[in-house]
Design brief:
Elements lengths: L5 H11 L7 H26 L3 E3 L2 E4 L2 E7 L2 E3 L2 E4 L3 E4 L4 E2 H8 L6 E2 L3 E4 L2 E3 L2 E5 L3 E11 L2 E10 L4 E7 L11 H14 L4 E4 L5 E7 L2 E6 H11 L2 H4 L4 E7 L1 H4 E2 L2 E2 L1 H7 L4 E5 L1 H13 L6 H11 L17 E3 H19 L2 E5 L5 H12 L8
Parallel strand pairs: 14-18, 18-21
Antiparallel strand pairs: 1-4, 2-3, 4-14, 5-13, 6-13, 7-9, 8-11, 9-10, 10-22, 11-12, 12-13, 15-16, 16-17, 19-20, 21-23
Amino acid sequence: MAYQSIDELQNLLSQEVFGNRQDCKKAAGRALGTFIEIIMFYLLRKWGENDSIAIERPLAEYGCEEITHNVEFTLHPIYNLSPIFNIPATTPITAKKVDSQIKLSDAYTLTSNKVIDKDLIQNACIIATDEHSMVIATPDKITSNGTSMHTCTLNKHPYAMIECKRVGKEGDAKGPQTIEKAKQGAYVAKTTSSLQKVRNDKGGLDGIYYIDGKAYVGPYDELLKEIVFNGKPQQLRNFTLSIGVVSNHGNWFTADNKNKEMKVLAQSYDWLLFLTDKGLSEFITELLISPQKEYEAVRDAFIKSYSLSENSSNKNNNVFTKKKIKMNAHFALDTYFDANIARIENWFNVISPNNGTIKDLKQILVTLKNKDWRTIL
């Protein structure tokens, strides 16, 4: 039985995992934020976006590229997918080792990243970049004989971005940074796409975009649909769909009971999702508190990462994040999401747009991914 109260779960984690911390409940709250990011990463994988994902990449403001913002995830046009190749069973698997298989041109600069290091996987591992693109390596299968993997070359400008926001609370009191986090998310959502939102004199939202210096204005929702489904190259070239994910009823309330912070985010992101207490509690209960045997690796990676004291010399050795994760935990999460994807999609409420559904958002991302970006960019 999943816990229905996030406060109850946070207290349980603070006692059993973070009891050696000076502020154990605050530490447990930060871990809850990590869970939201992990849920979104593996959900995007199951939606077929795995080869398009980049993690914590700088996203430039539209028309002002010297100002950038790191966001949790960005989804990028795919220029090229390599054939699957095999690397012998030795670690680490470095960018240089991958390049020895795919032979990138001299225009690319290799990174120092490791796709696999001992028993760790780096998700969405960037092995090389040039001025306009980046190359990401993805393991497909790992056996005692070696690792089969492939690479994908992505354009640096994303067609979608995803940010996750959660603020902890004490009892019924709202976290002091709640409105500040809402403002930060709203600012990024409004400034990183060529389709911009403006408030009209009726209180509604219009959209505005430019082609060769000429402004085009219309109802925002209509322009958004036009660009996603029938957009011309000039409309799509600098367009980035913005997706926000928020959690914790105590701060953000619900789809039917929006507070100021939720309203700020709902009118800023193209899509705003609310991860329910029920969904987050099922994830924590089924994977971290009482996992079936096939999912125990997830709990073990979590415990190894978060049971360290604040003063431990190994406190940065986190092996349970969206970016770096224990290999067996990664495959256990893949299995869990495969087996439960329909239920997991129901963990979310759609706050905006009105009458939007998770299936609608999934279809939009598939539509954007499948566009002929070589003729657009």
